[in-house]
Write a structure and sequence with these properties.
Length: 192
């Protein structure tokens, strides 16, 4: 949904397995790091340069906290995300990364989206995941674009990419690229 005066998009940018999972049944992303190898992906810095706000679910936040040991090394948050304002959706009281520009919210995603879009201005709002969280934005007509990096992996189960029913009339393929391993596909979400 284009809010009055808003130039930026609300984008779901994520890596996925071929069979549509963003984490394996144990919540691990080892399969993704293994598939990516040490190849330098220029796409993420290019994408992130357009981001003005980030929103993520509790599991994703907890994964980043644990994986990067952010409570021991809080400065890493700024190294990765700078001063980009971020929102974590949770019903719980989760530890904040000291010094990070981070807010916690719960409930209707429309309120969080309004705050994030305002903060992002002409830049984009990045929905980091997970899938159901992004689905909540799609339900409200607030998802504009999906950018996928499809790893050459099937997982058979895990955290779903986007557990909603969006049909061909809802999604327009706007770009496709590939490298030696990944397919990158961008879809515009049609607001009907
Ligand atoms: N492949 C990739 O590039 C990629 C990208 C992103 C994430 N991931 C991984 O994928 C997995 C995603 O996990 P997930 O599917 O569980 O999703 P998630 O969105 O990260 O977390 C879901 C949790 O967020 C909270 N939540 C969601 N909506 C809410 C709302 N409206 N109000 C309040 N709280 C809300 C709830 O937690 P509580 O009620 O418990 O607080 C819910 O159980 C993680 O393991 C993550 O590391 C992978």
């Amino acid at each position: 949904m284009w809010l009055p005066g808003r130039m930026g998009k609300t984008q779901y940018y994520t890596a996925t397995s071929i069979d549509g999972f963003i984490a394996d049944p144990q919540g691990s992303l080892d399969w993704l790091f293994e598939a990516a190898g040490d190849g330098h992906d220029e796409r993420f810095p290019r994408f992130f340069a357009g981001v003005g706000a980030m929103i993520m679910g509790a599991t994703t936040y907890e994964w980043v906290l644990a994986h990067e040991r952010l409570l021991d090394e809080p400065g890493k948050w700024q190294q990765y995300y700078g001063e980009i304002p971020s929102w974590v959706l949770t019903h719980r009281s989760l530890p904040a990364v000291p010094g990070a520009r981070l807010s916690f919210a719960a409930g209707d995603v429309r309120r969080v989206h309004e705050e994030a879009a305002l903060a992002a201005g002409s830049r984009n709002v990045w929905l980091v995941g997970g899938g159901d969280l992004v689905g909540q934005f799609a339900d409200q007509g607030l998802l504009d674009e999906i950018q996928l990096g499809v790893a050459p992996v099937t997982l058979g189960g895990g955290a779903p990419l986007l557990p909603r029913r969006l049909l061909a009339a809802d999604l327009t393929l706007t770009a496709v690229e590939h490298d030696a391993r990944f397919v990158y596909a961008t879809y515009q979400v049609m607001h009907r």
